[in-house]
Amino acid sequence: MIALDQHPSGRHFLQIPGPSPVPDRVLRALSLPTIDHRGPEFAVLGKKVLAGMQRVFQTRHPVVIYPSSGTGAWEAALVNVTSAGDAVLMFETGQFATLWHKMALRLGLRPEFLSSKGTDETTGLPWSWRRGVQAELIEKRLREDGGHAIKAVCVVHNETSTGATSDIPAVRRAIDAARHPALLMVDTISGLACTDYRHDEWGVDVAISGSQKGLMLPPGIGFNALSPKAVAASKTATLPKAFWAWDEIVEMNKGGYWPYTPNTNLLYALSESLDMLLGEGLEAVFARHRRWGEGVRSAVRAWGLPIQCADANVYSPVLTGVVTPAGVDADQIRTLIHERFDLSLGTGLGKVKGRMFRIGHLGDSNDLTLLAALAGVEMGLKLSGIALAGSGVQAAMDFFAAHPARAPGPLKP
Ligand code: PLP
Questions:
Q1: C-beta of 76 in contact with ligand 1 (< 6 A)
Q2: Which atom of ligand 1 is nearest to the CA of 212?
Q3: Rounded Cα distance, 130 and 332, in Å
Q4: Residue of 20, 74, 96, 358 to test ligand 1 pocket, by largest number of atoms within 8 Å of CB
Q5: How far is CA 142 from CA 179, 205, 274, 349, in A?
Q6: How confident is the model at residue 406 (pLDDT cuts 50, 70, 90)?
């Protein structure tokens, strides 16, 4: 039994796909003195983080910040725009799409769950848990819905349980091609600030996100990004909403305040992470994650193990799912790696439990921390008796060495 005050030496390797490692700058910002959330200083902080989040979501419209986890922000999105018994179209891409579907059921909606059918013969995993949304299935279903009973299409941008992304502009095109008025709702909880997300340009009506992934903060903030169409829908939607209701929050946010006590210190941390991300530039942030993903996948290929995402066009830059050989319990490997090397990997969730583990490549990381993580995984795989085709660490070293992060400039004295 590990006591809370017992820590192994050095930093824990938090290689799960969120919560991600928090930069020291952000941890220091968290420790600033808590201030009066009705006072003048707070309004400066409030306005800054709201404006910064609009830049991250790439929107001119309101962003709502909740003291909640991502699950709360999911609920906020649904209760603001739907009424009891409304049909919503969801797409099975993995565990998080499944949980959002379950939530819609609990809220008294009528969710329909589209899915790519079948099982992959080599790995035995369901196809729908190895790829992104198939937009053509959404278009087909919406064309059948001549009476426009479906009120919203809900998809997950980066499926954290599989390491597959979904093409959101393709989903928008599918809705438009079917000439359907459904709202487009996108969970970009683990995609935002890691991979490109353009709220206004892509025509998304409600986006959902959280603090503990690409924003590199501890858990505890949930986000909704809105569109004018979503705001209009919220005025007539009748599912009960009070704490989650957008109207009062958006109104008070105009002055930099909230109708309740916001999580002040996490907002300090958000302000710091926005300085870091926007200072680096979103394009550079996305390129950094793409490169990390490619480096980690080169390691998995060298080990000779299947990458869970079977479609190279939608590989996640945030995490990589590694499928273990049939008959080998992936969770035993994870446990061994944690015990021996103080390294946490993401567990297989839902339909892929025990068949895979996830390597997160997000948050406060760099080439060398990723290489160290891969070394821990490689040692763990070998200790578990898995025959590897080659060294993943060597492959990733070769990749990182051959692909410099940015053109090296002369050092200034
Ligand atoms: N959606 C996605 C894609 C996620 O990755 C997660 C959490 O990992 C959630 C939803 C749920 O968010 P939370 O655990 O913060 O409630």
A1: no
A2: 15
A3: 22
A4: 96
A5: 8, 17, 38, 30
A6: confident
Mutate to test the pocket of ligand 1, among 68, 71, 102 (most ligand atoms within 8 A of CB): 71
Residue 23 has a pLDDT of 98
**pLDDT tens-digit profile of 295-304?**
999 999 999 9
243-289 pLDDT per residue, tens:
999 999 999 999 999 999 999 999 999 999 999 999 999 999 999 99
Q: Under 8 Å CB-to-CB from 269, ≥6 apart: which residues?
A: 22, 26, 27, 29, 30, 217, 218
Cα distance between residue 394 and residue 371, in whole Å = 9
pTM listed for this prediction: 0.97
Q: Which two tokens stand for residue 229?
A: 């169409």
Nearest ligand 1 atom, CA 210: 15
Give residue 35 CA to ligand 1 midpoint distance, Å.
29
Q: Is the peptide bond before 21 cis (omega within 30 degrees of 0)?
A: no
The order of strands in the sheet holding 63-66 is 63-66, 222-226, 206-210, 183-187, 150-156, 87-92, 110-115
